[in-house]
Amino acid sequence: MKIENLSDLHVLVQTARCGSLSGAASVLGMTPAAASATLKRLETQLGTRLFERSTRALRITEQGQILLDYAQRAFDLLDEGESQVSEARTALVGKIRVAAPSDLTRTSLLPWFDEFLALHPGVQLALNVGDRLRDVVRDEVDLAIRYGKLEDSRLVARVLTENRPILCAAPSYLARHPAPQNPQDLAQHNCLIFERNGRPHKTWRFAQHGKWKEVRVNGDRSVDDASLVRLWAIAGAGITLKSAIDVRQELANGSLAPLLPDWDTEPYPLHALLPSGRFIPNRVRALVEFLAGKFAAIDT
Questions:
Q1: Model confidence pLDDT, tens digit, residues 112-126
Q2: What percent of the chain has pLDDT over 70?
Q3: Of 128, 88, 126, nearest to 284 (Cα)?
Q4: Do domains 6-83 and 165-265 have the same CATH topology?
Q5: Would the pTM count as exceeding 0.90?
Q6: Which CATH class is domain 94-163+269-299?
Q7: C-alpha 33, offset from chain centre
Q8: CB atoms within 10 A of CB 148
Q9: Architecture of domain 165-265
Q10: Which of 207, 163, 202 is nearest to 183 (CA)?
Q11: How many Å apart are CA 260 and CA 191, to the nearest integer?
Q12: Residue 53: which pLDDT band, with cuts at 50, 70 and 90?
């Protein structure tokens, strides 16, 4: 049988979000008994259990999760359609779920997000900040901003800016330690290690005249938050290999100094990632265009 009343899907969505029928009923302005009856009606129509029930909690089943994913996409589509045919059809409305790197968010994205929200008061931002990679499809993220090479074919990618890391250190560190003259000298320095996806990034690559060299570096501290690496570097704790975007202000004001300027580093582009199998609302496309313009202004 087919679902007879699409509004019943709101009970499914809210029950999954709240973790209980009573919570869903409260959000939807109905009684728990009515919410329970609606959920049972859905299960009867579909011929499958959507939640496993116990005296303490509800747990969504595999079939329930499949329906939930499609229901959320359907409601997103409806919201977008309503906004396009309303009298204020040129206005952007709805939530944008964004995942972004920690240091990039703090150094660049926060004021840009504020500006975008001021331009579009009908938009809400749900921001997840962290340096561990998020699964854009599984985690229901509308937009992920991510450094580096891409390996997931399920994603639509747009390069926001070309980028290469900068080797740099604070003047206070260089006052205590002679600046490296070549990549091999880094073995004698305290290097600040960033952990990418749980693995310390200790192999740094440099090129000169088209020939690449790898250097194994070490230091007295490592962290999985890129913003802390930058703060340690500013404090004079050691040398860092950092995204040029993240340290552009420090390089400009002199709190960090570039090192080995005659050596190239590996490309580390910044991408906007969108799930290819999901409808992309205009508000998400608008945010991508807005951010691309901001990064273009930096590059020029």
A1: 999 999 999 999 999
A2: 88
A3: 126
A4: no
A5: no
A6: alpha beta
A7: 39
A8: 14
A9: 3-Layer(aba) Sandwich (3.40)
A10: 207
A11: 14
A12: confident
Question: Residue 167: which H helix or E strand, with range?
Answer: strand 165-169
**Overall CATH class of domain 6-83:** mainly alpha
- 297: its two tokens: 């202004």
Backbone dihedral angles phi then psi of residue 87, each to the nearest 5 degrees: -60, -30
Q: What is the separation of C-alpha 194 from the centre of its chain, rounded to a whole number of angstroms?
A: 18
Say if residue 170's pLDDT is above 70.
yes
Six-digit token pair at 266?
Answer: 């590996």
pLDDT at 87 over 50: no
Count Cβ neighbours within 10 Å for each residue of 91-117 and write b for 16 or more, e otherwise: ebbbebbbbbbbbbbbbbbeebbeebe
DSSP 3-state percent helix, strand, coil across the chain (nearest 5)? 40, 25, 35
Query: Cα-flanking dihedrals φ and ψ of residue 224, to 5°?
Result: -95, 10
What residue segments make up the domains of the chain, in order of their start? 6-83, 94-163+269-299, 165-265
- Look over the chain and give the mean of its residue pLDDT values, rounded to a whole number: 88
The whole-number average pLDDT for the span 143-167 is 83
Q: Which two tokens stand for residue 277?
A: 């199998």
Structure tokens at 144: 């992920």
